[in-house]
Amino acid sequence: MKSVPGQPGMMLLIGLAISVAFTSSWGASLGVLPHNLDFWWELALLIVIMLLGHWIEMRSLAQTTSALDSLAALLPDEAERVTGDAGGGGERVDTVAPSELRVGDIVIVRPGGNVQPMESSPTVRPRWTNRW
After folding, report:
1. Cβ–Cβ contacts within 10 Å for residue 109, how many?
2. Cβ distance 126 to 118 under 8 Å?
3. Which pLDDT band holds residue 86 (cuts at 50, 70, 90)?
4. pTM above 0.70, yes or no
5. How high is the pLDDT of residue 40?
6. Are 95 and 79 in contact, with CB atoms under 8 Å apart?
7. Phi/psi class of residue 43: alpha, beta or left (left: φ > 0; alpha: ψ in -120 to 50)?
8. N or C: which end of the chain has fewer CB within 10 A?
């Protein structure tokens, strides 16, 4: 979910919680505030949970980017476009680059097209790794 400009987001709330916990704990340690406002353990736990959450989020983002790169590598280098009169029998199939395709073109889609198996393709390599 995107944050809306001018409205507080989650990071503002977390920053406020950390700031208040630190300030009240410091004041309680110095004797300026009552002793029951000592939140050092809660503050430490909040920071650890936030760092763990950010680490999990970044790891998931990196894996998603890696998966999208792997899918993009599977795109064929050529497309088969049907041109001519479809009803009159004067149709022909042209092999073109995908960048030459336009909206409304009729394209032949074949299962497995020109995609080589991963073992024989020098450009496509599996990215399965165990990161634990």
Report:
1. 7
2. yes
3. low
4. no
5. 94
6. yes
7. alpha
8. C
